[in-house]
Amino acid sequence: MPENPEYVVEVRDLKKSFGNHEILKGINLKVRPSEVVCIIGPSGSGKSTLLRCVNLLEKPTSGQIFIEGVEITTQGVDVNKLRQKVGIVFQSYNLFPHLTVEQNLILAPLKVQKRNREECLEKARKLLKRIGLEEKLHAYPDQLSGGQQQRVAIARALMMDPDIMLFDEVTSALDPELVKEVLDAMKELAAAGMTMLVVTHEMGFAREVADRVVFMDGGVIVEEGVPEKIFSSPEHPRTREFLSRVLNV
Amino acid sequence: MLFLADINIGQLVDKYFNLKLALEFLPHLLNAAKIAVIFTLIGEFFGIVIGLFVSLARISNVMILKYPAAFYVNLFCGTPLLVQLMFIYYALPYVGINLPPALAGVIGLSLNSGAYVAEIFRAGILSIPKGQMEAARSLGMSYAQAMRYVIIPQAFRVVIPPLTNEFVALLKDSSLLYVIQVPEIAYRMRSLASATFNATSYTLAALIYLAMTIPLTYLAAYLEKRLSRYTSHA
């Protein structure tokens, strides 16, 4: 039986070490359906590692993670099944360069979910239209700008009908003028009710879109709360110090 | 002592490139070249099949696949093809395995190129950015699916130029088949030379090898330039 089905993701006392280096030192985090949670914090604070643990790209050292109330950190979990429910978008897009946009989108639905080809093509077209890239259906990734590639990567993850989307610094590799189109696509997604866990350096996005902002530093969650509270009256001195540095640049 | 000055150019040309003999030898050597190419193509084909599986075994985490694969590669890259061919043709009969020259030759070339191709594939697969595997796995693909649909198709493009170079190397190495009586270029070259006491067949054989290898070398360079755009640089 699902223990806490009211959460899409629940992380309990998660620890992760690489060798002797402890990156995550006991993380507790809950994400409700349709909630947008932004994780902010300095480089090396463990934000990305936390995200990568949620779809088991990194294997937690200890602690528990539940997706839709089902623990994924026990032995014998069907990782491939789990990952279909958890979409992730990376900083470096990671589109498949040998496939067209359309093929990038339908590959996993066809081969993993064994869905009907016509249905997949239809869905791919719809998603591309939604992100304004329907004319790029037959383009190869290297013919697209970084912003376009990243939007295709979002569409590719959405093709699997995930319950939650993870975003790992998805605008960090983009030229400044291309950041907006990706953030707009994410805003649209949030408005449509997608549950999102977003690691980001875009404070404007966090302030505007997030239901909750989590500040991480040194492998722990230092502070969390609604954006107004975190950005206007942070309690912890480390949060204040971090925000004064990033907001004054 | 032999003094170069005593040899006149006419004699030299007659010894090393007698036109009349060259024309007479040419059909024989071209026929032999055909045999060399056929053996090389078959060896390369099986080499690619063997190499693909061995490279996947080598990069896997399954110990009973990984270590035998590494042993195979070390064995066949670490010993000369000449010894491998002689072992198959002359040493296996001691345990009752008598193979005809053609079969021994195909087996030798295949196993030898398989080891080199495995290393080429391994490097090709490892050259694909880690993010590609992660993206594929994140979409719910199994390791095997990610390899088959995402990694190997990209790796194939990366390995085409080094594979072409490997083919050139194998074509040249096929000359060693003469020690197990396969009538390829080197074998014909020697028999023609000893039948005529003339070195023209050696010159002609070298030219035939060059005529085959130089275009292939340029092809490899061209392919390298063309195919680089289809691979991920991220």
Write the layout of secondary structure elements.
The complex is a heterodimer of chains A (249) and B (234).
Chain A: E1 9-18, E2 21-31, E3 36-40, H1 47-54, E4 62-67, E5 70-71, H2 79-85, E6 86-89, H3 101-111, H4 117-130, H5 146-158, E7 164-168, H6 176-191, E8 195-199, H7 203-209, E9 212-217, E10 220-225, H8 227-232, H9 237-247
Parallel strand pairs in A: 3-8, 3-9, 6-7, 7-8
Antiparallel strand pairs in A: 1-2, 1-4, 4-5, 9-10
Helix pairs in contact in A: 3-4, 3-5, 5-6
Chain B: H1 9-16, H2 19-59, H3 63-77, H4 81-91, H5 101-127, H6 130-138, H7 143-173, H8 185-196, H9 200-227
Helix pairs in contact in B: 2-3, 2-5, 2-8, 2-9, 3-5, 4-5, 5-7, 6-7, 7-9, 8-9
Structure write-up:
- Chain A is α/β, with parallel strands linked by helices and 249 residues long.
- Chain A has helices at 47-54, 79-85, 101-111, 117-130, 146-158, 176-191, 203-209, 227-232, 237-247, and strands at 9-18, 21-31, 36-40, 62-67, 70-71, 86-89, 164-168, 195-199, 212-217, 220-225.
- Chain A has a 6-stranded mixed sheet, sandwiched between helices. In chain A, strands 2-1-4-5 form a 4-stranded antiparallel sheet, covered by helices on one side.
- Chain B has helices at 9-16, 19-59, 63-77, 81-91, 101-127, 130-138, 143-173, 185-196, 200-227.
- With 234 residues, chain B is an all-alpha fold.
- The N and C termini of chain B lie far apart (65 Å).
- The chains are: A alpha/beta (249), B mainly alpha (234).
Calculate Rg of chain A over CA atoms.
Answer: 18 Å
Question: Which parts of chain A are unreliable, with pLDDT below 50 for 5 consecutive residues or more?
Answer: none
Biggest beta sheet summary of chain B: none
Distance between the termini of chain A: 49 Å
Biggest sheet details of chain A: 6 strands, mixed
Largest interface: A-B, 29 and 23 residues
| Average pLDDT figure of chain B | 93
Helix content of chain B: over 70%
Structural class of chain B: mainly alpha
**Biggest β-sheet: strands ordered side by side in the sheet of chain A:** 6-7-8-3-9-10
Oligomer: heterodimer
